[in-house]
Each structure stands twice: as structure tokens, then as C-alpha cells.
Task: inverse folding
């Protein structure tokens, strides 16, 4: 599972709105032991970027799925991590997360994400098949 | 948006568990006007396959994101459809959905999904960028 995650470039993060509806967005991520980190890219003040932050602040439950699609369905797989999200505005853990993300995505070296970082402390791993 | 959806092979479906937690899985899908159809592949009695059905039966809100990832971040895009899910066990609409899915995925011609079909009546479209 961890090897697949290391090579995966994108995951899809699901949260729940304060009204109780599901919300899902693609996102870049890095996994550090039992914590997932993800930055809010660009335009940090846009409504779209803030939605997932507001959701996590209201209800910390979050779920990230990382999967591989192929038209050869014998090659399909997914890994899902459920956990509790935190929004990190500043400080050492945010710096640490941005270093991990920059190691994985060189785009972040040139253009460090200006906004908060989302941390998800994993409480359950699921994998298929 | 519709052209991108037509060519996309996989989406990620988010629902909410009866306990209020987000749940997200990759899935094949077909869009017919303002309704998304998705089948529960294989092992219809497995816990994993049933989870999303149980969620929709308890809380119909569902969200499907379809996106494109590239390491050239100028090429990123996503389309998200929020709506109300229904679980269709049998009947004309299920047959219609399975025809649409088989037109898109030839795997379904040889091996028609034996279980229920999920229909999501779209209430909101979002796209980025």
C-alpha cells in the first residue's frame, strides 16, 4: 500500500459540508507515517479552495482515496485512508508538510503554496483488491 | 464539461455514512443528460460494495468528481456533479443504465453487473478551472 501511495501523484479527498453533504476534490498529497498532508494550491482565498477547509473545521472526518485505473480491470486497485483532519495555518508542522510536498512535487519548490495545509491523522486504512 | 465526461473512464464517488463520515470510492460511470449511472461491480454481496448503497439509502446526497491529472499543472481540470442518489434494484431504468454502461465499457458486455445500479440525479455542476 505504501509503495503505491509513494508513486501516486493525485488522490481524491472527501469531506462533509456543515449541511451534511459529501464534497470531493482531487488533490496532491504526501504521506508521512500515519499522517497525510495536502496543501491548498494557489488562490487561497477562492471559495473553492476554502470549502474543504471550512468542512474540516466543522467536521474533521476526512477520507482520501488513491487509485489506479486501467481498461484492463485486472489491474485496478485502490487504497483509502480515513482519518481526522486538521487545518494548519502556520508553524513547524506546516513547514514540515511543505518540505515533504516539495520533495514529491517540484512545482511546489518554485511556487510554495501560500495558504494553510491540511493534515489528516489516519485512523483506518482500506485497500482493494 | 460534457465532452470531458464522455471520454473519462473513471470518477470518484463520495457519499456520507449513516454516522456522518465521508466515504469515497473510484467507480465507472455513464452520464445520461442530468443523471449519472454507476454499477456495483462484481461481488455484489461484499461489504465494500454494499457500503455505498447503504450510504445512499440512508442519505441520498452524493458527489462525483471526474478529473485529469498531469505533472504539467496547467493541464489540470476537474468536473464535479452533486446530486441525489437512488439505488435501483431492477426494472426499465436499471436496464437502460446497464445499456449505457455497456456502450462505454465493453467489459460490461461480457460480464453484466449482477447487482443494483446507482442513479444520481444531478442538482449542481461545478468545474475547474
Result:
Amino acid at each position: 500500500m505504501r509503495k503505491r501511495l509513494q508513486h501516486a501523484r493525485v488522490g481524491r479527498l472527501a469531506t462533509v459540508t456543515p449541511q451534511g453533504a459529501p464534497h470531493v476534490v482531487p488533490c496532491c498529497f504526501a504521506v508521512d507515517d500515519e499522517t497525510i498532508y495536502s496543501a491548498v494550491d494557489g488562490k487561497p482565498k477562492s471559495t473553492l479552495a476554502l470549502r474543504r477547509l471550512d468542512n474540516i473545521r466543522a467536521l474533521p472526518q476526512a477520507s482520501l482515496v488513491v487509485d489506479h485505473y486501467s481498461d484492463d480491470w485486472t489491474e485496478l486497485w485502490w487504497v483509502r485512508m480515513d482519518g481526522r483532519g486538521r487545518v494548519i495555518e502556520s508553524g513547524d508542522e506546516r513547514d514540515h508538510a511543505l518540505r515533504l510536498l516539495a520533495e514529491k512535487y517540484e512545482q511546489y519548490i518554485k511556487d510554495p503554496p501560500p495558504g494553510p495545509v491540511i493534515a489528516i491523522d489516519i485512523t483506518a486504512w482500506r485497500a482493494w483488491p
